């Protein structure tokens, strides 16, 4: 990292990212730092002003946007959806694939005229993209209308960075390429009053050869169990119905703690809290142990949905990806999970067109998809990420072959998803009513324990309640149903 004193709150600085630093993993202990109160001169700076945050990444990234919103609202800013009204526009970006990055550059270009018309607007780029050198260089060169660049490790510095962006003429760049600390007690404005995200750990040490995340998010570091438990308790007290525990690799939770306490222990403690639904993402197959399966099999408020990315069904490709398991080991794990939780909903992530992937190797991916029978899958064409080991592997698969493989894979998965949903026909399922359907205002939508989206006719007063819905018309991605009974009716029967 640069030798500029980042603690000196009154220095102008230019701290660019450094990918070599970002990939180091030393023995340094993780520091747990409390969010500092907002400096006095910034406390009311946003009064009568508006902010807009655009979010491009994963759930972790979305949750970071909630933190940025929390910090901005602490400074008096109010939210808006209108670019024309906003005094500050932040792009919270994702670096995982090139098309995610292209979108952001497109948007930044589009906003140039707005900045010319309204020079007082602060335009900021945050999140995973700024952790890449090439991105910061490109912004410095071609997007000089950007005022502020910061990364994933210094969100808590937003008040200071914003102050400098407001009062300096030059672009403020502060990106820390370090292993990372844990910042506790940051303010948050959650987007939803029913479902909340809770970070249980940060970073990733897996270094899958295609993936940029370990470089943009730093090393694996777990929050203290007592902090997580306190946060979930507080959410339950506030009336939240569901929490989703977040980490790039939640099964590795606790490996870095100085106590003998892992993800299964955490779930076992959280299940005692009076919160109706607990989910988690993402699980890495490598660290998914028997104890965890045992705890999940107890159900209760632990939902029977596991997102278990397999990436490729071919052991040689898995080895080149450094996924640290074989096809057989993955299938064995699935078998164990299904035995313990027969109605488990399994979803996954798959990459096609990894460097050197042959048609036969791709066939192994198709056959694994068939063998497991996932409820749904996120499918991606491999995208080379500068600085990762796979980016220097020979990538000789023509683009049209990659696209055609993706299409075949999606066609197969859609058939399977449809079949899986068909099994729910005429079944009555528990649904947490989350809101009004996006496509029909007379229809409510909610999710099953397995995280499937259900649409059914009902009164909006049911939002936030658990209801029983009979599935009438299963489709590929959603289920159409009919309301059978509400929470209150069930309680009446019980009394
Ligand atoms: N930590 C999670 C997810 C990380 S990113 C996990 O390990 O499962 C989400 C998904 O994006 C990955 O599962 C992978 O399928 C995909 N992905 C990551 N890097 C990619 C790349 N370079 N090209 C294409 N897809 C990628
Ligand atoms: Fe990326 Fe692999 Fe870490 Fe997931 S486990 S974030 S795919 S390096
Ligand atoms: Fe993207 Fe960063 Fe998440 S790269 S997937 S926003 S961790």
Short summary:
32% of the residues lie in helices and 22% in strands.
- The rough form would be described as globular
CATH fold type of the largest domain: pyruvate-formate lyase- activating enzyme
Distance between the termini: 64 Å
Mean pLDDT: 94
> What's the CATH H-level superfamily name of the largest domain?
tm_1862 like domain
Class computed from helices, strands and strand pairing: alpha/beta
Q: What small ligands are held by the chains? A: S-adenosyl-L-homocysteine, iron/sulfur cluster, FE3-S4 cluster
Domain unit count: 3
Low-confidence stretches: 1-11
**Strand order of the biggest β-sheet:** 1-8-7-6-5-3-4
Measured as a percent range, the helix fraction is 25-40%
Radius of gyration: 23 Å
Would you mind describing this structure in some detail?
It is a single chain. The protein is of the alpha/beta class and 495 residues long. It has three domains: 9-174, 3-Layer(aba) Sandwich (Rossmann fold), CATH 3.40.50.12160; 182-421, tm_1862 like domain (pyruvate-formate lyase- activating enzyme); 428-494, OB fold (Dihydrolipoamide Acetyltransferase, E2P). It is 32% helix and 22% strand. The protein is built from 15 helices and 22 strands. The chain has helices at residues 19-22, 59-74, 98-110, 112-117, 133-142, 158-167, 213-217, 225-237, 263-270, 290-297, 315-320, 327-340, 359-372, 399-422, 487-494, and strands spanning 14-15, 32-34, 50-55, 78-79, 88-93, 122-127, 148-150, 172-174, 182-184, 195-199, 201-202, 221-222, 242-246, 277-281, 305-307, 345-352, 376-381, 428-436, 443-447, 453-457, 466-474, 478-486. Strands 1-8-7-6-5-3-4 form a seven-stranded parallel sheet, with helices on both faces. A five-stranded mixed β-barrel has the order 18-19-20-22-21. Helix 9 links the parallel strand 13 and strand 14. Residues 1-11 have low confidence and may be disordered. It binds S-adenosyl-L-homocysteine (SAH), iron/sulfur cluster (SF4) and FE3-S4 cluster. Residues 204, 206-208, 211, 213-214, 248-249, 284 line the site of iron/sulfur cluster.
């Amino acid at each position: 990292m640069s030798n500029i004193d980042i603690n000196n709150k009154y220095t102008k600085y230019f701290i660019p990212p450094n990918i070599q630093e970002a990939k180091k993993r030393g023995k340094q202990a993780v520091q747990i730092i409390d969010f500092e109160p907002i400096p006095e001169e910034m406390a009311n700076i946003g009064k009568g002003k508006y902010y807009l945050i655009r979010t491009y990444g994963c759930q972790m990234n979305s949750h970071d946007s909630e933190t940025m919103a929390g910090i901005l609202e602490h400074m008096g800013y109010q939210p808006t959806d209108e670019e024309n009204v906003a005094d500050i526009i932040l792009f919270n970006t994702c670096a995982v694939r090139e098309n995610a990055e292209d979108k952001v550059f497109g948007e930044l270009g589009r906003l140039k005229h707005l900045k010319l018309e309204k020079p007082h607007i602060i335009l900021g780029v945050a999140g995973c993209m700024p952790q890449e050198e090439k991105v910061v260089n490109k912004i410095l060169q071609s997007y000089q209308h950007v005022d502020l660049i910061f990364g994933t490790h210094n969100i808590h510095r937003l008040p200071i960075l914003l102050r400098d962006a407001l009062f300096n003429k030059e672009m403020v760049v502060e990106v820390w390429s370090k292993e990372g600390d844990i910042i506790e007690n940051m303010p948050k404005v959650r987007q939803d009053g029913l479902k909340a995200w809770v970070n249980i750990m940060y970073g990733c040490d897996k270094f899958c050869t295609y993936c940029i995340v370990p470089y943009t998010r730093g090393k694996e570091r777990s929050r203290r169990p007592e902090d997580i438990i306190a946060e979930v308790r507080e959410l339950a007290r506030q009336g939240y119905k569901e929490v989703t525990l977040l980490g790039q690799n939640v099964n590795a939770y606790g490996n870095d703690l100085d106590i003998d306490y892992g993800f299964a222990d955490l779930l076992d403690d959280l299940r005692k809290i009076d919160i109706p639904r607990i989910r988690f993402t993402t699980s890495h197959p490598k660290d998914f142990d028997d104890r965890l399966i045992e705890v999940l099999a107890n159900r209760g408020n632990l939902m029977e949905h596991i997102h278990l990315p397999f990436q490729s069904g071919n052991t040689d490709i898995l080895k080149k990806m450094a996924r640290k398991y074989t096809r057989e080991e993955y299938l064995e794990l699935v078998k164990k999970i299904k035995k313990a939780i027969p109605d488990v909903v399994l979803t996954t992530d798959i990459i096609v067109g990894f460097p050197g992937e042959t048609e036969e190797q791709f066939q192994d991916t198709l056959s694994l998809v068939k063998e497991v029978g996932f409820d749904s899958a996120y499918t991606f064409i491999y995208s080379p990420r500068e600085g990762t080991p796979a980016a220097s592997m020979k990538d000789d698969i023509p683009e049209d072959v990659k696209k055609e493989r993706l299409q075949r894979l999606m066609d197969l998965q859609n058939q399977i998803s449809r079949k899986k949903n068909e099994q729910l026909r005429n079944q009555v399922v528990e649904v947490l009513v989350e809101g009004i359907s996006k496509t029909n205002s007379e229809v409510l939508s909610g999710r099953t324990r397995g995280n499937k989206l259900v649409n059914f006719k009902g009164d909006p007063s049911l939002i936030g309640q658990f209801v029983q819905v009979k599935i009438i018309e299963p489709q590929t991605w959603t289920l159409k149903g009919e309301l059978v009974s509400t929470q209150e009716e069930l309680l009446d029967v019980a009394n």
